[in-house]
Structure formats: structure tokens, C-alpha cells
User: Which sequence fits this backbone?
């Protein structure tokens, strides 16, 4: 980058830095963003295809989940990274609709490109897009349907829509049942469902049908000692956040032992201290212990003799969920254990699942934390099933909190497209063109659903528009027949927040990319030469990195 000053070029950027301006910069960004959108577009909808991703280590991921595809792809371009951010935000906020959000953002930029070619200024387009996004949220609010958190059938439909098009579809009804029961179990009286209280464990082996909901917790640990019982019925459970082992002194001290008898007395006293700890546990009436810290060998021996099942080094999050599931109180000191701190469970047992021992705490009364054990034929099937279940859990919890749903199958987008065109006519001016471009971009969702299902997108779009013009707001695409159908009656429904989040984040990202007219990229730092080990040139030669005058130190 140089400026001429009396024939003398003035360099203001470091050597090797690059700069692209206005049209070149914009086209560069648009192309990258559209490439990301087209990469995930074929995965959208009930008939979407999967992608196989192979990372630098050779690990394989097979998935249909937009955000997973974009995270696994090693994306370098800055504008493309912004598209990945849309998917991540969508996933963190509402769990589903990641592909839709990215595809809409790509289409918004494609339509903006057409307007810029007609000499409409990017600022005007950005303003029109903002107005259209605001109006979209208003229109969506108008077509949303209220749903009660107790309406289990509707919650199952919502989970079903999130699972459709993924490998989990084979056992959709059973999985929807598991997901809805799990979310309802952990929902607080104020209507908040915290998914941290649903513990999802995945194990390859068996089949998808063997996926189960445990009304309690599943801990990926084994018994501390083989002599402990494998099964405890009507268990009284102690959740302990203190070590069952000999306490070392806080201060460093030296103990001098002069006779063998003193050494033996010292060891006997250690054993006596551990035994006293175990006696306190036994006295509380506990038959199962989950300890967050360690249990030493002597304590294991005494606990096994007392017929107590003990598990050590249990994760903090698992301990908290165990307390919620069994009604126990986490005890931080062995001296403070009382019978009131114990929780209960109908059955605690150690089971061997595909070669690994796991502790099942089940048959809890009214558990406020539950576990889902996901099974499938191979690692890849189990991983994809876990992603599908995560999406379903998220959407059900979003509906329980938001209590609003919209029909799926491209119905809200078709309705938005028509209403935004009407709104554009009332706005007038150049912003009208941008609002119309936004309205046209909405149709990418029904168009893509039709294409991925192998139907003619143009015929279907025409039929969809006709249905919506006739006031059938809930009509979307039936992927099987290729005709518009009532999505509410078909049970294809999504949370309102999935749609509002997708549209607002896609519009924000598109506006941000649209407003960039200059890209200045610094020169990349040179790679260290092989064998140099990242040292500065010249090695350590006399501490060459020292400032002048520091030589005497």
C-alpha cells in the first residue's frame, strides 16, 4: 500500500501486507460466505444428505448437523469464519436451525450482490435488511401458536422435527419419548429446564433401540473394591466431598522412630483413624457412597466388610446431579454426616456395558436429574445420535421456557416472504429494494427443502405461495408427496425462538459482511526453520534478547 508524494512512493504498511478494496474486497467476502452456505445446504430438511469429514489425524465424523460440519471444516477465510459463528451462536442458544441460519445468511448476501450491481449503496441495503429483520420478528410473533409445557404430544412433535433427517429417525418415536420425559423431569417449578441435569452417556454396541432413559444417574465408574456388593436394593446414598483416607499433617514435620514397636504403633494409629472415619459412615446407615475425592485401600477394605458399595473420584458435576436425583445433600466433612443427608434410590448396580463397568443409580422417586444412555452399532452412529438427541433436548427445553411454536416445513419462511413484500410496498424509496431482496432470500428454505427431497422447487414454491395467499399460514412442504400440506396437522412444528434466532443472527452477520469495503491483511509470520525449535536467530548467543546495558546481570 503506497501513496505518491512528489513522485516518491510512501509505504505505510509492512512489507508483505496485502490490501483489497471496495468491489474486490466485497466480492471476495461474498464468495467465501456463499461457499460456506452452499457447503451445508444439501443437509437441510428431512431428506438432507450427510457429510463425511476427515480431520488431520484421520478421525472420521459423519454428520448432518450444520454446526458440527462447520466446526470440523478447517475454515481459514475471515468472512467464512463469521458464517461459522452464526451456526455456533444458533447451536448455543437454541440447539437447532444451524443450517437454516447459515443458508439464509448466504442467500441475503447473494441478493445484496445483485442490488450492488444495480448501484444500490451497501448502507441502504444494510438499513433495509435491518428493517426487514425487525418486521420479520413481528410477523413471526403474529403466526406463533402458544403451547402449554404440559402438552406432551406437542413436545414430542417438536423433538421429532429436530430428529427428522438425521440417522436417529429410525427410532424417532422412542427417542422423542425419552427426550420429552428427560426434559420434563428436570424442569424446575418456575418453568426453567437446565440441560446440565441431563447426563448423556454414549456407548457403542447393541442397537439404537437399546437407548434408554434412567430415572436417576449413570456414572462411568466402577466399584472401588471387588469385594463390595454389585447390587444394592432400596439404597441409602451418601454423596461425600471429603477424602476417606489418612489425613496428612498441614505442616511439614519429621517423625523419628527408634524402635520397631514405635513404627507399628504409628501404622496402627493411621489405620485406627481411617477405621474411625469408616465407622462414622456406617453409623449414618448409608449403603452406597459416592466420593468426590479418594478412598484409600484400608478404607476400601473396611467398607467392603461392612457391605457398602463405594465409588471414588466421581466428577463434581456428577455428584451434584446425584444429589438432585436421589434427594441427598452433599456432605463436605465426615464428622458432619447425619442420616438426614442421605438420598434414596430403588436400585444401585454395577453393569458391564460394552466392556466397561458403569454404576446405574435407578428407580429414584421424582428425580430432578436423569441420564440417557445412548447405544448404537458403531462409534460414528453413537456420535451422530448424541448430536441429534442434544438438538432435540435443546428445542424441547426452549419450548418449555418460551411456550411458543411455529409450523415447520418452510411455512413461516413462505409467509414471511409474502408479508415482507407487502411491507416493502409501504416503505418506498431505495430501502424497499433491500426489503424485497430480504423477502426473496426467505424462500431459499422452502426451495432447498424441495430440492433436497428431489422435487421441482419452482412448482412447489408456486403452490406454497398460492396456499399462503389463500390464508393457509400453516401450510409447508410435505417432503414425501412434494405438495403443500398443513404442518400443524402433520405434527411438524418448531420453537418460535429457533426461527427468530436464525433470522436475526443471519441478518446481523450479512449486514456486517456487507458493510466491509476494505480488507487489510498483515504479512504472515515466517515459519521457524526445521530444527530451529522456535529460537530467535543466532540462538541464545550471550542472551541476545537482553536490553542494552543489562549485560552485568
Assistant:
Amino acid at each position: 500500500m503506497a501513496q505518491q508524494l512528489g513522485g516518491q512512493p510512501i509505504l505505510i504498511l509492512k512489507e508483505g501486507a496485502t490490501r483489497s478494496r471496495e468491489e474486490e474486497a466485497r466480492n471476495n467476502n461474498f464468495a467465501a460466505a456463499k461457499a460456506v452456505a452452499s457447503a451445508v445446504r444439501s443437509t437441510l430438511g428431512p431428506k438432507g444428505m450427510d457429510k463425511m469429514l476427515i480431520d488431520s489425524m484421520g478421525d472420521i465424523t459423519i454428520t448432518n448437523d450444520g454446526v458440527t460440519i462447520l466446526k470440523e471444516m478447517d475454515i481459514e477465510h475471515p468472512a467464512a469464519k463469521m458464517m461459522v459463528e452464526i451456526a455456533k451462536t444458533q447451536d448455543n442458544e437454541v440447539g437447532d436451525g444451524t443450517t437454516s441460519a447459515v443458508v439464509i445468511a448466504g442467500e441475503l448476501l447473494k441478493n445484496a450482490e445483485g442490488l450492488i450491481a444495480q448501484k444500490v449503496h451497501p448502507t441502504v441495503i444494510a438499513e433495509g435488511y435491518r428493517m426487514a429483520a425487525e418486521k420479520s420478528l413481528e410477523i413471526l410473533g403474529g403466526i406463533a401458536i402458544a403451547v402449554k409445557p404440559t402438552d406432551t404430544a406437542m413436545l414430542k412433535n417438536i423433538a421429532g422435527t429436530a430428529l427428522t433427517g438425521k440417522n436417529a429417525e429410525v427410532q424417532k418415536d422412542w427417542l422423542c419419548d425419552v427426550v420429552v420425559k428427560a426434559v420434563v423431569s428436570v424442569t424446575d417449578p418456575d418453568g426453567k429446564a437446565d440441560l446440565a441435569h441431563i447426563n448423556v452417556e454414549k456407548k457403542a454396541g447393541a442397537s439404537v433401540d437399546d437407548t434408554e432413559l434412567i430415572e436417576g444417574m449413570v456414572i462411568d465408574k466402577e466399584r472401588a473394591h471387588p469385594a463390595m456388593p454389585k447390587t444394592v436394593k432400596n439404597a441409602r446414598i451418601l454423596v461425600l466431598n471429603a477424602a476417606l483416607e489418612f489425613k496428612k499433617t498441614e505442616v511439614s514435620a519429621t517423625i523419628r522412630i527408634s524402635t520397631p514397636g514405635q513404627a507399628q504403633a504409628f501404622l496402627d494409629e493411621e489405620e485406627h483413624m481411617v477405621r474411625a472415619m469408616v465407622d462414622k459412615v456406617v453409623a449414618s446407615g448409608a449403603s452406597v457412597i459416592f466420593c468426590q475425592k479418594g478412598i484409600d485401600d484400608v478404607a476400601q477394605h473396611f467398607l467392603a466388610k461392612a457391605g457398602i458399595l463405594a465409588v471414588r473420584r466421581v466428577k463434581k458435576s456428577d455428584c451434584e446431579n446425584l444429589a438432585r436425583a436421589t434427594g441427598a445433600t452433599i456432605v463436605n466433612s465426615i464428622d458432619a454426616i447425619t442420616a438426614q443427608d442421605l438420598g434414596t434410590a430403588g436400585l444401585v448396580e454395577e453393569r458391564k456395558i460394552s466392556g466397561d463397568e458403569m454404576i446405574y443409580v435407578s428407580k429414584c422417586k421424582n428425580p430432578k436429574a436423569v441420564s440417557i444412555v445412548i447405544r448404537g452399532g458403531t462409534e460414528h452412529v453413537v456420535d451422530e445420535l448424541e448430536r441429534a438427541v442434544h438438538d432435540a433436548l435443546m428445542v424441547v427445553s426452549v419450548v418449555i421456557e418460551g411456550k411458543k411454536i411455529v409450523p415447520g416445513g418452510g411455512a413461516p419462511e413462505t409467509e414471511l416472504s409474502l408479508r415482507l413484500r407487502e411491507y416493502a410496498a409501504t416503505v418506498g424509496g431505495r430501502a424497499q429494494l433491500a426489503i424485497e431482496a430480504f423477502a426473496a432470500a426467505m424462500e431459499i428454505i422452502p426451495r432447498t427443502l424441495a430440492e433436497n427431497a428431489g422435487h421441482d422447487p419452482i412448482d412447489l414454491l408456486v403452490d406454497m405461495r398460492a396456499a399462503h395467499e389463500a390464508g393457509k399460514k400453516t401450510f409447508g412442504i410435505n417432503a414425501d408427496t412434494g405438495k403443500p400440506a398443513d404442518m400443524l396437522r402433520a405434527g411438524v412444528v418448531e420453537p418460535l425462538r429457533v426461527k427468530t434466532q436464525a433470522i436475526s443472527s443471519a441478518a446481523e452477520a450479512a449486514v456486517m459482511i456487507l458493510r466491509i469495503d476494505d480488507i487489510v491483511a498483515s504479512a504472515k509470520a515466517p515459519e521457524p526453520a526445521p530444527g530451529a525449535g522456535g529460537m530467535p536467530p543466532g540462538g541464545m548467543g550471550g542472551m541476545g534478547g537482553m536490553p542494552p546495558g543489562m549485560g552485568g546481570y
